Amino acid sequence: YEITTRLVGLGDVYKRQMLLGVLLQVGILVLCGLWGVGRANQDLLVCMVTYTLLASLTLTSFFSMPVTRFLADMLFAEREDEILPSFWGSNAIMLVAGTVLYGVFLLFSGATLLQGLLCLWLFNIMIVNWNGMSYLTAIKDYRGILCSFAVAIGVACLCALAALALGLPPVEGLLTSIALGYGVMLAWDVVLLYRYFPQSERSPWLFLQWLDQFIPLALTGLFTNPVSYTHLRAH
Q1: Which of 184, 57, 187 is nearest to 126 (CA)?
Q2: What is the pLDDT of residue 211?
Q3: 139, 117 Cβ separation under 8 angstroms
């Protein structure tokens, strides 16, 4: 029952994140329209952000359900000191693997070097953010997650407004703004995690035993969450 409750909560948070992500893109596009940014640049920006979010979500989806099961077991066993090390261990694996895989994709995507680096930066930020959501749902801090996302939207829109007002290249300037907004969300989520869970010197790789044991859960996450976002590709 506990693991089911947490997975349902995580699914609800992902849906709200999707809606807030759409609001972020709409806000950025409204600013583009006000500043006369060309349609081609707007489409390129939406494409880059959408594919970057989907790529990061796809990678983290493989870990999200086994990690949630691991968290539920650790909380039930009152072993909270195992949680933060596993957060950084899972992040390390995904950041290394993701940087290589998405970096190869970007090399053949047709993006410029700067655009590719900005997309890779946003991709790595979102890996930590998506992973952080799995951990924050363990303490059922859904309000904290959504507040951090709302602040991220505000920061991203303010930075985008500044970038457009300063006359920076629109795609690069707006990509940077979005990455900065999500960076604020990352910092917020990490602070919340350190507020709830104790620091320790435990092994950061213990959660891998749960990944190996619950491969069907990992595959379920891998194929379920990205499918929920496939409609974005059509836009």
Answers
A1: 57
A2: 79
A3: no
Q: DSSP code of 197? A: S
Residue 187's pLDDT is: 94
Residue the block writes with tokens 């693991």? 3
CB atoms within 10 A of CB 39: 9
- Selection from 41, 54, 46, 88 nearest residue 189 by Cα: 88
Burial of 50 (0-12, 13-18, 19+ CB in 10 A): middle
Tell me the Ramachandran region of residue 36: left when phi exceeds 0, alpha when psi lies from -120 to 50, beta otherwise: left
Q: CB under 8 Å to 77, separation ≥6 — which residues? A: none
Residues in the chain predicted with pLDDT less than 50, given as ranges, are 1-10, 231-235
3-state secondary structure 11-41: HHHHHHHHHHHHHHHHHHHHHHHHCCCCHHH
Question: What is the pLDDT, as a whole number, of residue 225?
Answer: 60
204 DSSP assignment = T
Our measurement of the distance from residue 35's CA atom to the centroid of its chain's CA atoms, rounded to an integer in Å, reads 28
- Closest residue by Cα to residue 131 from 77, 73, 193, 51: 193
- What tokens appear for 139 in the block? 């303490």
Q: Which of 117, 131, 41 is nearest to 88 (CA)?
A: 131
Q: Where are the alpha helices (DSSP H) in the chain?
A: 2-34, 39-76, 83-107, 113-138, 142-165, 170-196, 207-213, 215-228, 231-234
Integer Cα distance of 73 and 78 in angstroms: 8
CA distance 116 to 100: 13
How much is the pTM?
Answer: 0.85
Q: Tell me the two tokens of residue 163.
A: 């970038």
